[in-house]
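Ticket #415: bound-state structure for manganese (II) ion.
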Amino acid sequence: MAASRPNLSLDGLIAELQALSQITEAEPPVVTRVVFSEADRRARTYVKGLCAAAGLTVSEDAIGNTFARWHGSEPELAPVGTGSHIDAIPNAGLYDGCVGVLGGLEAIRVLQQLGYKPRRSIELVIFTAEEPTRFGIGCLGSRMMANVLTTEQALALRDKDGRGLEELRTQAGFKGTLESVALAPGRFEQFIELHIEQGPLLEQESLDIGLVTHIAAPASLRIAIEGEGGHAGATLMSGRKDALAAAAELILALESAAKSTGAIDTVATVGVCEVFPGAVNSIPSRVRLETDIRDTDGARRDQVLDALRAACNNVGTRRGVTITTELVNADPPAICDPKILAALEVSAIESDKSYKRMVSRAYHDSLFMARVAPVAMLFIPCRGGVSHRPDEYASPEWIGSGVHVLARTLAQLAG
Ligand code: GLV
Ligand code: MN
Ligand code: MN
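RESOLUTION: The complex was predicted; output attached.
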């Protein structure tokens, strides 16, 4: 790299993050930006404008994955990629994903200001729908880029109002075939994602940077329970087929299966529980659960999944309710590339930043990019480990450290 101190415009970057957070379906400072919503579309326009202003060549694929390329002196070489997502779950904050997108852009601008000319192109990627809010499956954009989701599966995706990916992406103005989203082999030379930790460890240990070695394997099972409704007063307890009481058993069975592995990395959550008809004086006849199970060890994660399925059989038979399950996804963990990790380590040392190696228990688009390119992630702290909440916070200093180390690493890798 030409100079040893990248000239970060931290105030500008923080102002951009703040401006992006104002583009929300909720009342600021609450950020809700569900993919293909009006807010998502406006946020895309804002970020693409910033990329164009930085002289990057912007293109989009058929589902809105966005690529902003800084051309290298050997443009025929596969680029080094960086980026993350700008969609946000309901009631979120402003750093998850956006730090990796606008921080990645800032890293490029810093290198431009230093007069650095990359040999390989450097390409910022803004992934469509990292969050599972709309379609129930996480990392939709990167999953399709890695060709993990077939076109048939993608076409079958529906949101809670029954609207499909095809309808929503065309309405949002994205053209081309879904098949064309899959990346050609060798499309990226390497990929690095900057992200907030979403856990407390870096802050607790007063560290600037986390070098992510593994990304945990996520799985999701949807469960539908069909019981028998009726009058809450007039129906006696014996012989009831209460779908919510059955769901309660399953929720506790899942918790106990996750705890029983004894491994700190096994986690399981029931984040959605829809009860029908949802009236206080009516026995629930139908319940829909969405579960989220993760582990850094894929086989151990699958044991928990199996235990949950066994509990479904058992509870269904014992309570006389019908329980059906649908596996939404069960992805393997990702291992980050030792060469990129070494480059990140050199950058952290040269930048005087403290760091440690760690695992990511949250998933990220890098989980899928790892299937098509060597990847690594760098984390920065976030206050109290809080994320997916409006009070999510990363200090300008933490963000600056992340961008600084990212910029140096991109320069090392792009040559
Ligand atoms: C990503 O948002 C996750 O849930 O890990
Ligand atoms: Mn998230
Ligand atoms: Mn994220």
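RESOLUTION NOTES: The first helix runs from residue 10 to 21.
TICKET STATUS: resolved
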